[in-house]
Fold this sequence. Notes:
Shape: globular
Radius of gyration: 13 Å
Helix content: under 10%
Largest sheet: 6 strands, antiparallel, barrel
Number of strands: 6
Strand order of the largest sheet: 1-4-3-2-5-6
Structural class: mainly beta
Distance between the termini: 13 Å
Order of helices and strands: EEEEEE
Amino acid sequence: MPPFTLLCTIRFTHKTFRLPPIDYAVTCYRPHFVADNSGEYLGVEFISGEVSAPQQDALVAVKPLFDVDYSPLLRRGAAFAIMEAGKCVGTGRVDEVRFQAAV
């Protein structure tokens, strides 16, 4: 599978959620996405976007972390839960999938 990034609309819903770092060059936020209640945790890394507060929509870009099957997320409109260590802290949907050309 060629490298890709996902452009997503997300919303953090957990009341005790800590906002991810805004400076992605220094620190990164690496939760798991679970698509369509599949139960499979798919590791992602946030690479751009800004989350200002819980309970508000935010646009972010993420990239996959592992060499596993991410096909449940590779379609526009795919819904997912944002998981941190078994706790659902938010939800989201895929707005666009961007595949990079192989080098």
